[in-house]
Design goal:
By secondary structure, the chain is of the alpha+beta class. About 35% of the residues lie in helices and about 35% in strands.
Length: about 150
């Protein structure tokens, strides 16, 4: 299934006072730190994620995996796309960096996902209605921005 064929869940964006090439390494660091831990790996195994452990090149590049995700696109200073699947969902998380004006970059995070069957529908409700997904994505974006605003 192609990423753009997955239903759109949401999108969040922030503007960062830095050029895209300055934002990129912070994005890679935050994404890796967010998803590359023992708790995330345990959860990925629990839900039978296609990619339950971290592997591949670091910093993240096409072919790298994180628990629950594999990197399908890594265009420096432009786009990072993670894709994954488990028994309740097939999903993608794309980060796009766009110059707004000199010294300012918009960082967008778009989530797409399909939740097949009754179990998938229940998982969707748990994930999206709890507010956990929105909080997690917004927290990641803020963590990318934080060192660049100091």
């Amino acid at each position: 299934m192609r990423i753009d064929s997955l239903p759109r869940v949401d999108e969040h964006a922030i503007v960062i006072a830095a050029e895209p090439h300055e934002v990129w390494p912070h994005l890679l660091h935050v994404v890796q730190e967010t998803f590359d831990g023992t708790a995330v790996s345990a959860y990925a195994r629990l839900v039978r994620a296609a990619d339950p452990v971290a592997s591949g090149p670091r910093p993240l590049a096409e072919g790298s995996t994180l628990p629950g995700f594999h990197v399908t696109t890594a265009h420096p200073a432009r786009e990072l796309t993670l894709r994954g699947s488990h028994r309740f969902s097939t999903y993608a998380l794309s980060f796009r960096l766009e110059p707004v004006e000199p010294g300012r970059t918009r960082l967008r995070a778009e989530t797409r996902a399909a939740f097949p069957g009754l179990a998938g529908g229940l998982y969707r409700q748990l994930l999206l209605r709890s507010g956990g997904h929105v909080l997690g994505v917004r927290r990641m974006l803020a963590r990318v921005r934080r060192p660049l605003d100091e």
